[in-house]
Amino acid sequence: MRKTLFGIVVLILLAGFPAREATAQQPLDGMIERELAALVATYKLLHAAPELSHYEEKTSAFVAKELKTLGYTVTERIGKYDRPEWVGYGVAGVLKNGEGPIVLVRADMDALPVEEKTGLPYASKVRVKNDAGQEVGVMHACGHDVHITTLLGTAKMLVQLRDQWRGTLVLVGQPAEETIDGAKAMLNDGLYGKIPKPDYAIALHDHGEIEAGKVGYTSGFALASSTSVDIIVRGIGGHGSTPQVAKDPVVVAAQIVLALQTIISRETSPLDPAVVTVGSIHGGTKRNIIPEEVNLQLTVRAYKEEVRRKLIASIERIAKGTALAAGIPAELSPLVKVSETEITPATYNDPALTERLSNVFTRALGAENVVKWPQIMGSEDFGRFGLEGQQIPTALFWVGAADPSKVEESKRTGKPLAGAHSPLFAPLPEPTIKTGVKAMTSAVLELMKRQS
Ligand SMILES: [Zn+2]
Ligand SMILES: [Zn+2]
Known about the structure:
- By secondary structure, the chain is of the alpha+beta class.
- 38% of the residues lie in helices and 25% in strands.
- The chain is built from ten helices and 18 strands.
- The structure holds zinc ion (2 copies).
- One zinc ion binds at residues 142, 178, 420-421.
């Protein structure tokens, strides 16, 4: 009798585990489905009303209002920039739910100075004056409106599912990701004194090449560090017809631009990815005048800090050495300035955390909808939430935003898809948001699951 009862209990327990796993997903699907129309409406509103980096006033107020309505304790206006005229529009919503881990989820909120050309009914028509006084179109061309919508959807799901997790959930709306100074501004303003310091920080970013309905992950280095470097090449001006009495900075700048490319091909290990791009070159006013200076603007990308430092040292050496070889006097040696603000470390996805997340995505979305994605040389400032030396494990994953039929067509024709920062970037709203909310909610539930 006792033996039979024991057998029955074991059977019930064994049968119960997979059943609980399966039913835990089904209510989430239904819950997201019920919210989807409202979330897509929110997305379209946000898409039509983008705000540039450092000016996310209305977007952050909207995020704050929504989180407050859901019962989160909200702190607004977090962020201190080097330029005092910029207001820090960071938002954080905290939901305490007993003893357990502290998990931070971040969504960035800013848009880009891009004139939208998608022709969508909810396309942005916003035009503003930028900091330089030029009128520019504004567009959520990087899909940060997807991120905000997903954050709000996740916020709602986790309120409804609060009996399934324990701990403190921190949802962050971050300003100024595109200018890579927003996360830094929030931390400089004492973010981890205003909200509990997290045990984990996670984020998602939409991806224009991954089909909507899928997610992608990268373990270890996922995005590169970015460093802005300016070079002022100085010379001795004169008449264009008498180069012998001048020192032409245009020719020296041209030599520098080409020589810089040998840093990657000849000085760094082929196994250490790195990029040096001269994105802007300006000098001179007229055909027959040799100018006094030429300005170069560079972006430098790398994963490892020692590689980044070596790149910068090489840039300086090549700039100065080339000028010296051209006979530019020492007092007019090129000025090489490494920006202290336009700089962000590499995004390193903690391997153990990434493995946990990829496993939970496989369970939630099916193995066919979870793809291992290669690392890229683009940059993000999300890694800063992990603090210097990756003190807090962080992971950023990709959420597919592309129309699957367009991905198919692109593979067939070889024509690239319109990705992030393109005026034609158009995430497919329903499946992208649904998958984003499901993946992020499942990720948080995994990290905060109730220990019974
Ligand atoms: Zn972007
Ligand atoms: Zn982005």
